[in-house]
Structures are given as structure tokens and as C-alpha cells.
Amino acid sequence: MTQKFKNYINGEWVDSVTKETFESRMPADWSKVIGVFPKSNKEDVDLAVKAAKEAFKSWKKVPAAKRGELLGKVGDIMVKRKEELARLMTEEMGKIMKEARGDTQEGIDTAYYAFGEGRRFFGRTSPSELPNKVAITFLRPIGVAGLITPWNFPIAIPTWKMFPALLSGNTVVLKPASDTPALATKLVEIMEEAGFPKGVVNLVHGPGGSVGNAILEHNDVGVVSFTGSSEVGRHIASVCGRTLKKVSLELGGKNAQIVMDDADIDLALDGVLFGAFGTAGQRCTATSRLILHEKIYDLFIEKLVKRTEDLKLGYPWDESIDVGPVINEASMKKILEYVKIGKEEGAKLVTGGYRYEEGVCKNGWFVKPTIFVDVKPKMRIEQEEIFGPVLSVIKVNSFEESIDVLNDVEYGLSSSIYTKNVNLAFKAIEDIDTGITYVNGPTIGAECHLPFGGTKNTGNGHREGGWTVYEIFTEQKTVYIDYSGKLQKAQIDISIEK
Ligand code: NAD
Predict the structure, then answer these.
(1) CB-side neighbour CA atoms (13 Å) of 232
(2) What is the DSSP letter of 281?
(3) Predicted local confidence at residue 494, as pLDDT
(4) Within 10 A of 249 (CB to CB), how many other CB atoms are there?
(5) Ligand 1 centroid vs 326 CA: distance in angstroms?
(6) From the CA of 153, how far away is ligand 1's center (Å)?
(7) pLDDT for the residue 252
(8) What keywords is this UniProt entry annotated with (predicted)?
(9) Ranges of residues in the chain whose predicted pLDDT is under 70
(10) Distance CA 375, CA 382 (A)
(11) Are 263 and 184 members of one domain?
(12) 21 membership: H or E segment, kind and range
């Protein structure tokens, strides 16, 4: 029998007021239903925000170190349930088992990082410009945090947002992607088991247009954190601009790997295979462009095509599989549409480019790993985010040209350069306009204790991860303490007595 899931509001598992539902299905076999979920609306959001607002009154008073201990407990439970979460992720989202374990591990790391931050929730002290006076700053929570997440990191991304928001003393309303609602539910179950007080964590399932939008429009939501496409990000920024909410946006990418003529070719090959075809190319940091120096171009492509054709597609829970399905039919169609566009633009398709339906793949949304060569800068397949296993290869004849090509896109998330020349590596670090640069590593592989995010249309300047995510979820309070016993006037009482 199909499992029926619920929203989590004020510490209770409840149906939507609409009584309507939607299904989550397996991308590897669309005939299989994971579960049925409440298709909620604005009224459900109102109830969740009301509960979160009420719970904030006492949650903000819990010392940060104690809030952190609860997140440590969450980490411990996640460790115990890691295999179960990873297996469900292969079914609901479609990434392969190794990567699903990695996604879950990122959530565990984020929990333990937040646990530690509970005892490092520092402000600053500063001397005043006046005598017998001191200034200090505190970090304060904002209130109710509205969190809207995508499907491609269905455990990691909700933890990146929820854990620092909670550690900072906010309460949360999470709206997960409709493609991966079961995983978000499991995560919230774990948080319930860890013992968060009622109303501190709330989960509302449903469409972005109704549930997501209701969060953005709600007067009692103080901060919004969104990860998803740049298109939806623009809408979110405009609503949050109108309603004067703090908003953090982590959006699309068009990431490139440069391989210089002096690079270790086999190392660079391992990198691009993992970067381009890992998670079937559905990472925001996926390698979508490969910029090759002309001296190694032919050799590199020959080896790359061979290794790409050796990648095995199949059920993602089968440990021997390299590439799983893409998330849904619409996504597969969009990817195949880009294959058509690439051909029309004059790029040369050297492998893949079609739906793969052999063996167990017949009922799923599999796309054969695809490579276009002779791609020219400014072609649409070189500029636009495809979000699938499609790699565009561009030939360059100098380091300077490789940097120009890499930078000439609207996004600025991740980048990579393979070279043994330390001078070129440092020049690349300086000149590449992205939030993240890897040297002799693929464009993917972020770690939770470091800032994560991008330049240009990849976001609005915030960084998730590391210490920087706490800037999103807190306000600074500045306090002046005057112990002189008299009125002292800043900027006016400025003389130094002789
Ligand atoms: P999406 O933008 O379609 O959806 C993301 C979330 O926004 C979902 O929960 C969706 O329901 C919700 N949403 C949709 N319309 C909304 C609206 N009008 N108001 C409020 N919420 C709304 O993205 P997706 O397809 O889930 O994810 C893929 C995209 O996410 C890619 O562009 C990828 O690059 C990006 N991404 C970025 C990062 C990053 O950190 N920069 C990480 C992962 C994914």
C-alpha cells in the first residue's frame, strides 16, 4: 500500500487543510510510487508560521550551546540511519549509492559543525572613542526563517539551512522540493526524535507557487533562504525586496574545468568524468564546460570519449552503477532539447545525446552521458545551465583565452584548473570570477565548514556553509556601555587633554 505522508506543524503530523495530495515517484522506475504527500496551501503556511512565531519566544532563550547539543544529537541519529537515508535517496532522487551516502554525510558534518558553533557564537568587543566607555556586539536570531530547497541535494541542502538557522535561535518553516518530499520528511522525523520543542521545526509540503510564495509573502517570516534556479531566485528576490525581508539566494551555475597543456592528463580525466557525469550532471557545481588547451585537445578527447562510453547506467541502488537517472520526465526532455540545440548550433556530438532505455532503464529517465566538441563560446549549450549529463568542450590556445572563456557566462559558482605550473594556478585563482575555484580537482566537492556560493547570477552575495552562513541567520546588536558617570558625546567631545 502507498505510504501517506503529512506536514509537520507545531510538533504534530497533520494533513493539509486542502485535503489534496501529490505523489513522489522513482526517477529510475516511474511506475513506482514512493509516497503521497499533502498538497498544501497558504493556510497551512499560516499555521506553520504561527507555530514557529510562538515557539521562537522560548527557543531564542535557550543558550546557543544547548541548541547546539540538540543538533549534535541529530548528527548521531543521522549516523545510525545513514544507510537507510542513502538508500531512500537513490530511490526518490536517483543519485547513485556512493553519492547518496556522501549527501547524507554532508548533513551529518553540518550537524556536528553547528554543534561546535554553539560554543563559538561570538560577538566582538571594541574600545569606544570616548574614555570610560566600551562597545560590544551580540549575534541575535531574526525570528521565523522560511527555507525553500531544491531536489538535487535532498538531505544536505535542507541541513545547510535548517541547522545554522536553528543554532542561531530562529525557528523554521521548511518547504522542500516536490520531487523529494520523503527525504525531507525523514530528516524532520530525525529532528523530532532528537527532541526539538514543538513549533521550532515545521515542514509544509506543496508547490512552489502556493506554499513557497506564501512563505515569501508572510509578514511574520523574517528571513528567507532559497536554493534553486536563477529564474525562481529572481522572483524570490523581488518579493523579498517588496516585503523587506533578508534573503539569501544560491542559484544556477555553468561551471568549467580548464586543462592546460602541462596538466596530468589522467588526473584531469578523472576530474572531468566525476564533475560532469556524477549525479548525472545535476549538481549546481557540475562541470558543464571543459576548456582544453589545443596542444592536448585531440588526445584528451579520445581518452575522454572512451572513458565516458564505459560508464554504466542502471538502478542507482546497484553499487556497480556509475550514472543514475535524471530527476523527472520534464528534466529529461529539457536536456534532450539542449542536445538538439547543440547540433543546430554546429557543435559536434561525439557520444551520447539520447534517452537510454536498455535493460532495467526502460521505465526511468536515463540520459546517456553526452559530449559535444568544437563548441564555440556564446553557443547556447556553452552559456545556459542544462542540469544534466551534457559536457561542452571548447578549444583554446592560451591560458588567457581559457580564463576569458571561463568567465564569459552569466553565472559564477564553481571552476577548476588542472596545471602543474604554480604561477598559472595562482593567476587563475585571482582572475577567475567564481565563488569557488579548485586547483587540480574537479568543480565539485564542497565541504560544509567553508563558505559556499557564487558571483554574478549565481546569487545575491551571501555564502552558505562555514562561518558565513551564520551571517544570514543573525542580526548584529551593538551595545555601548558608558561607565564615566557623565554625558559623553561621540564625535563632539573629541579633545585629548594635554
Ligand atoms: P527550482 O528553482 O525549480 O525550485 C527550487 C525550489 O523553489 C523548490 O522547492 C520549488 O518548489 C520552489 N519554488 C518554485 N517556484 C517558486 C515560487 N514561485 N515561489 C517560491 N518557491 C518556489 O529548482 P530545482 O529544479 O529544484 O533545482 C535545480 C536548480 O537549483 C538548478 O538551477 C541548480 O543550479 C540550483 N541549485 C543551486 C545550488 C547552489 O547552491 N547554488 C545548489 C543546488 C541547486
Answers:
(1) 20
(2) G
(3) 77
(4) 24
(5) 15
(6) 11
(7) 97
(8) NAD, Oxidoreductase
(9) none
(10) 7
(11) no
(12) strand 21-26
- Measured in Å, residue 136 CA sits from the centre of ligand 1 at 38
pLDDT the model gives residue 1: 80
Q: Ligand 1: does its nearest atom lie under 6 Å from the Cβ of 178? A: yes
Query: pLDDT at position 276, please?
Result: 98
Helix axes 265-277, 297-309, angle to 10 degrees: 50
Tell whether ligand 1 has an atom less than 6 A from the beta carbon of residue 382: no
Write out the residue range of the structural domain in which residue 387 sits: 255-439
Buried b (16+ CB within 10 A) or exposed e, 108-146: bbbbbbbbebbeebeeeeeeeebeeeebeeebebbbbbb
Per-residue pLDDT at 498: 76
245 Cα: distance to centroid of ligand 1 (angstroms): 19
Res 189: pLDDT: 98
Question: Is the Cβ–Cβ distance between 28 and 316 less than 8 Å?
Answer: yes
The residues assigned a catalytic role are 250
Q: Give the residue, out of 215, 217, 227, with the most ligand 1 atoms within 8 A of its beta carbon, to mutate for a pocket test.
A: 227
Does the beta carbon of 415 lie inside 6 Å of ligand 1?
no
DSSP-derived 3-state class of residue 457: coil
Cell matching residue 379: 553557443
C-alpha cell, 117 = 558553533
pTM over 0.90: yes
pLDDT at 497: 73
Tell me which H or E stretch contains 352.
Answer: none
Name, in order, each residue with C-beta under 8 angstroms of 241's C-beta and a sequence gap of 6 or more. none
Cα 348 from Cα 333, distance rounded (Å): 20
CA 322 – CA 246 distance, rounded (Å): 40
Which atom of ligand 1 is closest in space to residue 228's alpha carbon?
A: 30
Grid cell digits, residue 326: 535524471
Same-domain check for residues 221 and 259: no
Q: Is residue 491 situated within a structural domain?
A: no
CATH number of the CATH domain containing 324? 3.40.309.10
Whether residue 470 sits in one domain with residue 365: no
- Which three cell numbers mark 83? 544507510
Q: Give the Cα separation of 107 and 78 in Å (integer).
A: 8
